[in-house]
């Protein structure tokens, strides 16, 4: 039996050219695997047919939108995952899902090698290969763009030489990756970090400066999972999909930042994540209502570490598994409704209610009916400040 190479296939120029190129380099068959993670564009059947037309021995296409939403976007939401406090982990969430299906295809078709289209400068090579190391360490890995210095010019020439059925003329000035959770744009004139993004950079979001009526939405959560919008039960995929449209129409979720890449360089990125930003804001506020103070304080450090692990490609790691268990336990009371106003590029919480609320009107009010015993406060403050008082006295005497 000849060697079989399982290729993470997008349907674009680079991975289409990779099919005959890998076949030549390895002398084996290429199995193309494409996933729909809500990125839009062509339908899966068209992508499957193109892979076969480019010489793939087999082509596997998977509608993974619901799986991506439930098993990857929801955990990121429960962790309030924002890398560097801003980036909601768009690309890094989809890579472990793709890895999972690459490994499944390798087992199904007897694959011995996995290939991806990542370069040596990006984070995705790490995410793919660290995931493969955890799930299928015996598989070999080939990254043509990195391992064989495969450039776009070479890819175009190879496609023309082989007469491949792909368009090699159009080229976006940007490098774009998108999925259900958001859209990432880089390169081109954005590499000069003084240049501001122009409107043609954006696709998921409308110009937030344009006048329009505000949109009010009520998001319902059960144990940290979004389950309804405006009282209508929906799957996580449907919630994210609808909020992408509604929050995106209000210009919510635009992010322009210089971030620290895993490979050690800084990179300018422009993101659009309307649903992710709105949902994280709503979820954080519901946690404020339902999660006890010390648990909430500790969870914030867990959330940060969780986001760093996922960004760094360690989805399938022991620490990530342990943090998942902690976060899941912390979500047991995060149920209720959050009302938000979407307008002018912002998602603003205006109301919250929960059967698991720790907020007590009687304790919080300053009006008649106040149940807070203020007579206890004086002694509490004295004891609380006692260590500082003792230390200050010592320092004055030194």
Automatic annotation (TrEMBL):
It comes from Actinomadura syzygii. This is Argininosuccinate synthase. L-aspartate binds at residues 119, 123-124. It holds the Pfam family Arginosuc_syn_C. ATP binds at residues 8-16, 117. Its main location: cytoplasm. The gene is argG. GO terms for biological process: argininosuccinate metabolic process; L-arginine biosynthetic process; urea cycle. Residues 4-165 form the Arginosuccinate synthase-like N-terminal domain. The keyword Ligase applies. GO terms for molecular function: argininosuccinate synthase activity; ATP binding. Its EC number is 6.3.4.5. Homotetramer. The keyword Ligase applies. Belongs to the argininosuccinate synthase family. Type 1 subfamily. It is found in: Cytoplasm. GO terms for cellular component: cytoplasm.
